[in-house]
C-alpha cells in the first residue's frame, strides 16, 4: 500500500485538518485492528489513567517535545472513547458531538468573553463560571455531586474541604502550619513515612476522613438547604 504524501510531496497538506486526520486514523484503527475492536470504555480506563499520569510527569519534569507527545497520547484516548461511543447501538455519539458540546459549554461559562459580561479579576471570572455551572447543574442536590471519589485521596481532600467551607463546615487547622509549599511537601512526606513505619495505610486513612467530612457537608446542607450554595 502506498504511503500518504508528506508535506514536502503534497502542497495541499497545508489545507488538511490535523484533528480530523487523527479522528479518521482512529476510525481506521478501530475498523482494522483486532485488539482495538475488542476494547470498550471500561477496558480503556487503565490506559486513560496511565496516559494522564505520563502527561503530568512530562509537564513537571519533561521536555517540550515530551509534553507534546504525551498530549497527543491523551488526545488519542479521547478519540478512542469517542469512536467507541459512535458505534453504540442505542445512543451513539462521536467526536463531533463531543467537540460541539465542549464548545457550547465553554461559551456559556465564559460570558465575559462571549456574552458582554465584565470580569476584571480572577475572582469575578470564578463567580461567573460558578453561576453558569449552577444553572447547568440545577438538578444537583449537594455541592458534592459530581466530585469523583476516584480522585487520589489528597486531591479529593482539597476538593471536598473547599466545598465544605462553602457550606460553613470548616476543617481544623493543623497544630503547626508550614510557611511554604516546600515545607508542606516535607510535612506530607514525613507523615507518609510515619504511616509506613507504623504499618498504616495513609491513602486509606485520609480517604476515610474525607468520607466523614462529606457526611458533615451533607448534614449541613440538609439543615440549611441549598439556596445560594456553589454547585
Note down, in words, how this protein is organized.
There is one protein chain. This protein has ten helices and no strands. It has 231 residues and is mostly helical. It folds into three domains: 18-93, MazG-like (Helix Hairpins, Orthogonal Bundle); 98-136, no CATH class; 141-173 and 180-231, no CATH class. Helix 1 (18-32) crosses helix 4.
Arithmetic mean of pLDDT = 88
Number of continuous helical runs: 10
What shape does the CA trace take?
globular
The biggest sheet, with number of strands, parallel, antiparallel or mixed sense and barrel status, is: none
Number of domains: 3
What are the main properties of this structure?
single chain; 231 residues; mainly alpha; Helix Hairpins; 3 domains; 10 helices; 66% helix; 0% strand; globular; disordered C terminus; NTP_PyrPHydrolase_MazG
Amino acid at each position: 500500500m502506498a504511503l500518504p504524501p508528506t508535506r514536502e510531496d503534497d502542497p495541499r497538506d497545508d489545507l488538511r485538518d490535523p484533528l480530523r486526520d487523527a479522528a479518521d486514523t482512529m476510525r481506521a484503527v478501530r475498523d482494522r485492528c483486532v485488539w482495538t475492536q475488542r476494547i470498550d470504555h471500561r477496558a480503556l480506563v487503565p490506559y486513560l489513567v496511565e496516559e494522564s499520569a505520563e502527561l503530568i510527569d512530562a509537564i513537571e519534569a519533561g521536555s517540550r517535545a515530551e509534553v507534546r507527545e504525551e498530549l497527543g497520547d491523551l488526545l488519542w484516548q479521547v478519540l478512542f472513547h469517542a469512536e467507541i461511543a459512535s458505534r453504540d447501538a442505542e445512543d451513539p455519539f462521536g467526536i463531533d458531538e463531543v467537540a460541539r458540546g465542549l464548545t457550547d459549554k465553554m461559551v456559556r461559562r465564559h460570558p465575559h468573553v462571549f456574552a458582554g459580561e465584565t470580569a476584571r479579576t480572577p475572582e469575578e471570572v470564578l463567580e461567573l463560571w460558578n453561576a453558569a455551572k449552577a444553572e447547568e447543574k440545577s438538578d444537583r442536590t449537594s455541592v458534592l455531586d459530581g466530585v469523583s471519589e476516584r480522585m487520589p485521596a489528597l486531591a479529593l481532600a482539597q476538593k471536598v474541604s473547599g466545598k465544605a467551607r462553602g457550606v460553613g463546615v470548616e476543617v481544623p487547622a493543623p497544630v503547626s502550619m508550614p510557611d511554604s509549599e516546600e515545607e508542606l511537601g516535607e510535612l506530607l512526606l514525613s507523615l507518609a513515612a510515619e504511616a509506613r513505619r507504623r504499618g498504616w495505610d495513609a491513602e486509606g486513612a485520609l480517604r476515610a476522613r474525607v468520607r466523614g467530612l462529606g457526611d458533615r457537608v451533607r448534614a449541613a446542607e440538609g439543615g440549611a438547604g441549598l439556596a445560594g450554595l456553589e454547585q
